[in-house]
Write a structure and sequence with these properties.
The chain is built from 13 helices and 47 strands. With 995 residues, it is mostly beta strands. The two termini are 47 Å apart.
Length: 995
C-alpha cells in the first residue's frame, strides 16, 4: 500500500513556503508565496470594515443591525471603557456619547453619577430609564469591569417601547457573558489611585486678614453698613506681625485682657491646606472567570473598591463589593434558559456632622489667626469659633451600609423557525442602614481652663435609619423575524411588562445617652424620642409592540406602540397609549449613488416622531406615590394641655380630580455617513422635544382656606438641541494606528405655556422664559468720588452711604434711579437678562494612539458656553465679619491707591455691591483634560515565558489640568454640577492580566 507523507517548511521573513511530499517513493516539491505582513493587515482591515457594516446594536427588547437603525441610538463597547480606571460606569461614559450628560456631583468617596439625555426634561425632573441586562438597576452599584456594552436610546422612536419609564431616554447596559466552546479564561485587573481636589486655595495670611477686616469695619461704621461686633485691636496686629517673623505655638496666642479665661489668637494657619494636606489613596481589584461548552456558557466576577476621602482629616472610608454570576444553557434545541445573580454591597464611614464643600469649610470662623491647637495641646475654638479638625476627630461617625441583591431567571423558547418567545422574572431586595452617633466633647480656653461642652455638638445623639425596597419585574415578549424574496426583511414583536416597587422605612433618634461611646438606641433616657417611618409602593404595567420592515437594504421603516398603566394616578386617568414611527433611507444603496461610493461609502438619512408620557412626580424615594389622595399629617402640638403636649392632625391638602400624565412629544432628524473607505464616520441629529401638561401648583387660593394649592397639568416647555459625532480611524505604516473622535452637543429649553403668571413676574416661570436665565444689573465701573456716589440714586439697593470705590450701576430705563421696577418682564427696572446657566456646546475630544505594544489615550472634555454668577465669601471675600478672604483676594480690593482693582471697596455684606451684575458674571466655559493614559502590553514571547495570555501596565491621570477664565478659586465643572464635595484630580497605576 502506497502512502503519502509531507513536510512543510517556512522561515519568518521569507515570502515562500515549501511543501515536500513523497508518494510511493516519488518526491514532489510544491512552493507557494505566503502573504506579507502588510497583506495580512490589509485583509484584517477589510474584515473589520465588514464587521462595522454588520455591527449589531442592543435596542429595546432585542438587537438590530446598526445600518438598519432609524432612531437616534448611540453605543460604546467594553474596549472604550476598559482603558479607564473608573469607580462607576457613569465616570467611564462621561464624554463618550454626545448629549449623554453625566453629572459626577463631586469627588466624595462612593459618589455616584446622575444621567441625563438631551438636556432639560421637565420642571418636575425626569431621568432616563437605566437597564442592566434588561432589568432596571442603579448603575452606580454595578461593577464597571463587568460591562460589555452601553447603548443610549435618545428619541421617542427608540424609547417608546419602554413607555412611561423611558419618556426621557433609555440607557441599556449589557454585561459580559461567557463564550461557547471556550476554555476557562481568568482576568484580573488592579488599580491604585492617588487623588486630591482640583482646586486647593489658601486663605489670606493673618496680617493681611486683620488689615482687611479693619478696613471693612471702618467703612461699615462710616456708612451705616455695619461695623465689626468683635473688632481687632492694634495689639492683635502687632502680635500677628511678630508671629510671621517668629512662628511658635506660644506666639500664636495671648490671654485676652478682657476675659482671662480665653485666648486671643495671633497665629497664621492655612486651614484649607490643613484639611486637604496630601494625596489620598484608592485601590480596586476585579477578578473574573468565563468560558463555556457547546451548550452552556458562564461568567463570574468579584470586585472590590477601597476609597479614602480627599478630606484627609475626616478619615472617611468607602468600600464597595460586587459579586456577579451568569449562566446560560441550551437545554434543548428549542429551549434556552439563563440565570443571573448579582450582589452589591457598600460600606461608608465618615464624620457625623460636617459639610464637605470647600467653600463651606472656610466660610465661617476659620480665621488664619487661630492655631489648630493651643500650646497645651487642646484644640482651639473657644465657643465662638469652629475648629473643623476637632469636629472631625471627636464629633462621632456616620456609618452607612447598603446591601443590594438581584435574582433574574429567563427562558428563550424557539417553538418554530423564525419565532422566539422570551420571558424573564426579576426579584430585587435592597436594604439601607445608617447609624449616626453624634458626640459632645469638651473645649478648653487659656492655659487649659475647661470652658464646657463644645458648641454645636450637644446633645449627644444616636440616629438609626433603615430602608427596605423590594422590586419585582416580569417581561414576556414574542418575536418573528424573516426575509422574503431576498429583499423584504420583516421583524415583529409583541410583549408585556409589569413592575412593582415597595418601600418600607423606619427611623428613630434619641438623645440623653447613658454613654455616648455606646451608641445604642436603647441605652438612653430621652423622654421624647423622634420616631418615624412609612410604607408605600408603586406599580406600572404595559403591553408593547414593534414592527420593522426593510426593503432591499435601502428603505427602513419602524413602528412602535405601548399601552401603559400606572398606580400613581386616579382611576380613569391611569392609562396612556404612546405610539412612534421612524423611517430611514440608505441613499448609498441607490444605483445613482454608485459614482460617489469611492468617496462616500455609506449615507443614511432618518427621521422619527413619537409620543410618550411621564409619571415623574418627585425626585426622592417614595415621593408622590399617591398624589391623587388627600393626605393628613400627625404632629406633636406646641401647646400643653394639662401636663402633656397633645398630637394634632393638620387639614388635608387639596387635590385635583383630573390631573394625569405629563406628555412628551419628540421629533428627530438625523444622518449617518462613512467616507474615504470608512476611515471617516459620523452622525448628526437635530431634535425637538415638547413636554406638555407638566404638573404645577394651580391658581392661588385664599389663605383662610388653610391648605395648599392642588397640582394641575398646566405648564409646557420645548427643548431644542442637536448632537454630532465624528470618528477618524487610520494607520501609518504597519505599526502605528490612531483614531480621533469628536463629539458636540447642545440644547436649550423654553417655557411655552404657564398660566399662573399673567403679570410676568420674574422669579417664577413665564411664557418665553429660557430656563437658566440670569437677571442682573449692568455695571458702570466704580464711583470715582464720594460726591459722585452720593449723587447717584441707588438707595433701593442699599440705604446707607455710597462711597468712591463702590459699584455704579447703569440707569437702563432712564428714570433717574436704580431699581428692579415692578420685578416683571414688562417692567424690570434697570435689570435685564445678562446670562444663562445652561451648559451650551458641550464637547469632547478622544485621541487614541497605538504603536507596537504601546498605547496612549487622551480624553479632553469641556463646555463652550455657560454663565455663572458667583456669591459667598469664596468669591467676594467678606459677606459678614466672620468670613475669611482667600489668597486670591490679596491686593484685589479697591483702595484710593488701587482704583483698577477687581473687587469694590471692602465692606461686610457688600453694602449693595454684591448685586447680580455684568462685571462679575463668570464664564463657566472650560476645557479639561479628563484623562491621559499611557499603557504597555507585554510581547507574546514574554507572556509565554511567564504563563500569561495578556498583561498590560498603564498609568493614568484624570482631571490633571483645566483651561478656564473663571475666578481662580472655582472649578467650573464643580459649579455646573451642583456638587458639595470637591472634584478630584488623580493619578492611577494599574495592571490588566489574563490567564
Amino acid at each position: 500500500m502506497k502512502t503519502l507523507t509531507c513536510r512543510a517548511s517556512y522561515s519568518p521573513g521569507v515570502a515562500i513556503a515549501f511543501l515536500l511530499c513523497s508518494f510511493g517513493g516519488v518526491q514532489m516539491l510544491s512552493a507557494q508565496q505566503t502573504p506579507s505582513k502588510k497583506e495580512i493587515q490589509k485583509k484584517k482591515d477589510s474584515t473589520n470594515k465588514t464587521k462595522d457594516i454588520d455591527e449589531v446594536v442592543i435596542v429595546g427588547y432585542g438587537k438590530q443591525k446598526k445600518v438598519n437603525l432609524t432612531g437616534a441610538v448611540a453605543s460604546v463597547s467594553a474596549k472604550q471603557l476598559e482603558s479607564r480606571p473608573i469607580t462607576n460606569i457613569g465616570q467611564g461614559l462621561q464624554g463618550l456619547i454626545p448629549n449623554l450628560n453625566i453629572n459626577m456631583a463631586g469627588g466624595k468617596p462612593g459618589q455616584g453619577s446622575t444621567f441625563n439625555i438631551r438636556g432639560t426634561t421637565s420642571i418636575n425632573g425626569g431621568d432616563p430609564l437605566i437597564l442592566v441586562d434588561n432589568v432596571q438597576m442603579d448603575p452606580n452599584l454595578i461593577n464597571p469591569a463587568d460591562v460589555a456594552s452601553v447603548t443610549v436610546l435618545k428619541d421617542a422612536a427608540s424609547t417608546a417601547i419602554y413607555g412611561v419609564r423611558g419618556a426621557y431616554g433609555v440607557v441599556l447596559i449589557t454585561t459580559k457573558t461567557g463564550k461557547k466552546n471556550a476554555r476557562m479564561a481568568v482576568s484580573y485587573n488592579y488599580d491604585y489611585t492617588l487623588s486630591r481636589p482640583t482646586k486647593i486655595f489658601g486663605t489670606m495670611n493673618s496680617v493681611d486678614y486683620i488689615k482687611s477686616h479693619m478696613e471693612a469695619s471702618a467703612t461699615g461704621a462710616a456708612t451705616g453698613a455695619g461695623a465689626a461686633s468683635s473688632p481687632f485691636t492694634a495689639e492683635d496686629l502687632r502680635r500677628a506681625e511678630y508671629y510671621l517673623q517668629h512662628p511658635s505655638p506660644e506666639n500664636a496666642v495671648y490671654v485676652d485682657p478682657g476675659n482671662p479665661r480665653l485666648y486671643r489668637y495671633t497665629g497664621n494657619t492655612d486651614w484649607v491646606k490643613a484639611l486637604y494636606p496630601s494625596w489620598t489613596p484608592q485601590m480596586s481589584h476585579n477578578l473574573s472567570l468565563s468560558g463555556g461548552s457547546d451548550k452552556t456558557t458562564y461568567y463570574a466576577s468579584l470586585g472590590y473598591l477601597d476609597q479614602a476621602g480627599t478630606l484627609e482629616a475626616s478619615k472617611q472610608k468607602f468600600q464597595k463589593y460586587n459579586v456577579s454570576f451568569k449562566l446560560d444553557s441550551e437545554l434543548a434545541p428549542w429551549l434556552d434558559v439563563n440565570t443571573r445573580i448579582t450582589f452589591n454591597r457598600t460600606d461608608n464611614n465618615d464624620p457625623a456632622s460636617v459639610s464637605y464643600g470647600s467653600a463651606e469649610l472656610i466660610k465661617n470662623d476659620l480665621r488664619p489667626l487661630m492655631p489648630i491647637k493651643h500650646p497645651d495641646g487642646h484644640y482651639s475654638g473657644q465657643g465662638g469659633f469652629t475648629n473643623p479638625l476637632a469636629i472631625l476627630e471627636y464629633n462621632g461617625r456616620n456609618i452607612t451600609k447598603d446591601n443590594d441583591i438581584w435574582l433574574t431567571g429567563g427562558i428563550n423558547l424557539k417553538p418554530m423557525k423564525h419565532v422566539n418567545i422570551i420571558a424573564d422574572y426579576t426579584w430585587n431586595n435592597y436594604t439601607y442602614n445608617r447609624t449616626t452617633n453624634t458626640k459632645a466633647f469638651n473645649e478648653y480656653g487659656a492655659n487649659g481652663v475647661l470652658l464646657g461642652v463644645y458648641p454645636w455638638t450637644t446633645p449627644a445623639r444616636v440616629t438609626e435609619e433603615n430602608f427596605n425596597d423590594r422590586y419585582q419585574a416580569i417581561n414576556a415578549y414574542a418575536q418573528y423575524e424573516n426575509t422574503f424574496g431576498g429583499k423584504h426583511y420583516i421583524k415583529a414583536m409583541v410583549g408585556y411588562n409589569q413592575e412593582l416597587k415597595q418601600f418600607k422605612s423606619f427611623n428613630v433618634s434619641v438623645k440623653n445617652l447613658v454613654n455616648q461611646d455606646l451608641p445604642s438606641i436603647n441605652l438612653n433616657y430621652d423622654p421624647n424620642p423622634i420616631v418615624g417611618g412609612g410604607i408605600n409602593d408603586w406599580a406600572v404595567a404595559g403591553s408593547f409592540s414593534r414592527i420593522n420592515y426593510v426593503y432591499d437594504e435601502k428603505y427602513l421603516f419602524e413602528v412602535n406602540g405601548r399601552y401603559d398603566g400606572t398606580s400613581r394616578f386616579a382611576r380613569g386617568h391611569r392609562y396612556s397609549f404612546q405610539p412612534s414611527a421612524s423611517v430611514g433611507w440608505r441613499i448609498s444603496k441607490e444605483a445613482f449613488f454608485n459614482p460617489l461610493k469611492k468617496v462616500i461609502n455609506e449615507l443614511k438619512v432618518r427621521a422619527s416622531y413619537g409620543t410618550s408620557a411621564s409619571q415623574k412626580l418627585g425626585r426622592n424615594r417614595g415621593d408622590n406615590n399617591y398624589p391623587y389622595l388627600a393626605t393628613m399629617g400627625v404632629n406633636l402640638g406646641s401647646y400643653i394641655f394639662g401636663t402633656e403636649q397633645k398630637p394634632y392632625i393638620n387639614a388635608p391638602g387639596l387635590v385635583s380630580s383630573n390631573f394625569t400624565w405629563e406628555k412628551v412629544t419628540s421629533q428627530n432628524i438625523g444622518v449617518d455617513f462613512a467616507l474615504l473607505n470608512n476611515k471617516l464616520t459620523g452622525s448628526f441629529d437635530y431634535y425637538i422635544r415638547d413636554t406638555k401638561d407638566m404638573l404645577y401648583a394651580g391658581a392661588a387660593v385664599p389663605a383662610v382656606l388653610g391648605t395648599g394649592v392642588p397640582l394641575q397639568n398646566s405648564v409646557d416647555l420645548r427643548n431644542r438641541g442637536f448632537e454630532a459625532s465624528l470618528v477618524w480611524k487610520d494607520r501609518i505604516g504597519e505599526d502605528f494606528r490612531y483614531s480621533v473622535t469628536l463629539g458636540l452637543s447642545d440644547y436649550q429649553a423654553r417655557i411655552t405655556k404657564f398660566g399662573q403668571n399673567p403679570n410676568g413676574n420674574i422669579g417664577t416661570y413665564y411664557v418665553g422664559q429660557k430656563l437658566g436665565e440670569i437677571w442682573g444689573y449692568e455695571t458702570d465701573g466704580y464711583f470715582k468720588t464720594d460726591a459722585e456716589a452720593q449723587g447717584w440714586n441707588q438707595k433701593f439697593l442699599f440705604g446707607g452711604q455710597w462711597l468712591a470705590g463702590d459699584i455704579k450701576y447703569k440707569d437702563l430705563n432712564g428714570d433717574g434711579k436704580i431699581d428692579q421696577g415692578d420685578n416683571t418682564i414688562y417692567n424690570s427696572g434697570d435689570r435685564r437678562i445678562i446670562g444663562n446657566t445652561t451648559p451650551r456646546y458641550q464637547y469632547s475630544i478622544n485621541l487614541d494612539f497605538q504603536y507596537k505594544n504601546f498605547d496612549m489615550t487622551i480624553f479632553l472634555q469641556g463646555v463652550g458656553k455657560a454663565d455663572w454668577m458667583p456669591g459667598g465669601n469664596a468669591f467676594w471675600g467678606y459677606t459678614s465679619e466672620w468670613d475669611v478672604p482667600t489668597q486670591a483676594h490679596v491686593g484685589q480690593f479697591w483702595t484710593p491707591d488701587n482704583t483698577n482693582a477687581y473687587f469694590p471697596r471692602l465692606r461686610f455684606g457688600g453694602g449693595g455691591n454684591f448685586q447680580t451684575q455684568t462685571k462679575y458674571l463668570q464664564s463657566a466655559a472650560y476645557l479639561r483634560a479628563k484623562q491621559i493614559t499611557i499603557g504597555y502590553t507585554l510581547p507574546q514571547e514574554v507572556l509565554e515565558s511567564i504563563k500569561l495570555k495578556h498583561l498590560r501596565l498603564y498609568i493614568t491621570g484624570q482631571n490633571l489640568f483645566t483651561f478656564t477664565s473663571m475666578f481662580k478659586n472655582f472649578d467650573p465643572e464643580y459649579l455646573l454640577s451642583g456638587a458639595t464635595y470637591p472634584i478630584s484630580k488623580s493619578i492611577s497605576f494599574g495592571a490588566q492580566l489574563r490567564f
